[in-house]
Amino acid sequence: MNQRNMDFRIDVDAVADSAAKKGKWRRFRPRWDLLTLMLLAAAVCTWTLYYRLCHDNARLHVGIQTMKDQSRKLRIEHPDRLAVVRLPESWYDETKWDVALPSEEAVAAGGARYKLCLATREIDLPKKGFPPAAGFVLPPGRHQIELKTVRKRTGWNIVALLDDQAVIDIREPADWDPGHGGAGSGASWERPYQPGSVTQAVPLYHEVFTMDTDRSPSEGPSNGVLLWLQPLMDIDQ
Question: pTM of the prediction?
Answer without folding.
Answer: 0.67
